[in-house]
Amino acid sequence: MREELGDFVAAIEEVPELRELLRNPQVDPRARAAALDDVLGDADELLRNFLRLLSAKGRSGQIEEIHEEFERLAAAEERRLEVELTTAHLLSDEDERHIVEQIERASGLKVEATRNVDPDLIGGVVLQAGSLRVDASVRGRLERLRHELVTRS
After folding, report:
1. Secondary structure element (H or E) that encloses residue 126, with its range
2. How far is it, in rounded angstroms, from Cα 82 to Cα 98?
3. Is 88 found in the same domain as 65?
4. For 20-53, b where at least 16 C-beta lie within 10 A, e where not — what string?
5. Is the same domain home to 137 and 110?
6. How many structural domains compose the chain?
7. 80-87, strands of its sheet edge to edge
8. At 39, is the pLDDT very low, low, confident or very high (cuts 50, 70, 90)?
9. What mean pLDDT is predicted for residues 54-74?
10. With 123 labelled, which of 43, 65, 145, 150 sits at a CA distance of 20 to 30 A?
């Protein structure tokens, strides 16, 4: 069911009409349920029932947020941490592995990392894990220094 829920949310993101159908309170609930049945086809019965319940309770427009929270809870249960590593230059596989190992040792969790490149960082790394953000970039250090100099004046 978890994978199918993710696929459904991806479809919502790709098809604006489907998002509008789910979020528009003026759409007749029976028409919304029928449309959901058509879209879901032979999807898992548990998923179909869950989405019908959301629709009946007027919460189908919040499916993306519900999915995000579901994934967060699943990651916590699996002792998995999803992180985003942003660097000024593309990390080598070895450098990424080294950073991931440090995070795993510190957190005690299995880390799944995605990599991004932002040349504006100048150097260093920005680590994003949920709402936690660690900025160890040169740009971040310069901004903190500028702020400190401004507040001292």
Report:
1. strand 124-129
2. 16
3. no
4. ebbeeeeeeeeebbebbeebbeebeeebbebbbe
5. yes
6. 2
7. 110-117, 80-87, 124-129, 132-137
8. confident
9. 89
10. 150
State the Cα–Cα distance between residues 67 and 82, nearest whole angstrom.
15
- The shares of helix, strand and coil residues in the chain, as percent rounded to the nearest 5, are 65, 20, 20
Are 105 and 61 in the same domain? no
Per the structure, the complete domain to which residue 131 belongs is given by 80-152
Evaluate if residue 18 carries a pLDDT over 90: no
Domain boundary among 58, 73, 88: 73
Give the pLDDT of residue 125: 93
Q: What is the share, in percent, of the chain residues with pLDDT greater than 90?
A: 46
The pLDDT assigned to 27 comes to: 86
pLDDT of residue 87: 95
In terms of Cβ atoms closer than 10 Å to its own Cβ (0-12, 13-18, 19+), residue 93 is exposed
